[in-house]
Write a structure and sequence with these properties.
Distance between the termini: 20 Å
Number of strands: 8
Radius of gyration: 13 Å
Low-confidence stretches: none
CATH superfamily: Jelly Rolls
Strand content: over 45%
CATH architecture: Sandwich
Shape: globular
Largest sheet: 5 strands, antiparallel
Number of helices: 0
Length: 99
Amino acid sequence: MIRAWHHHRLQSDAFVCVRGMIEVPLYDARDDSRTRGELQEFFLGDQHRIMLFIPPGVMHGYKVIGSEPAYLLNFPTEPYNRAKPDEYRLPYDWAIKFH
């Protein structure tokens, strides 16, 4: 399963994969960032227990890797607003431009 690409204008995310493994690519699209334009990939889960903090303006998504299901917990800094979601999406294959 692939779920990408999106960013938030207000919300930060904190991802923890509690079972299985996921790959999380990040692309820094923030104008005022010293890492603007950089693409990074992180692996979270059974083999690498970390919490990944994703600030507003950083494009991100995730892909389950391996043959086992993965369980991802997200701890966002803002409550979900159904009337006006803070989620801005791009096509899943958007990152292919970088390779």
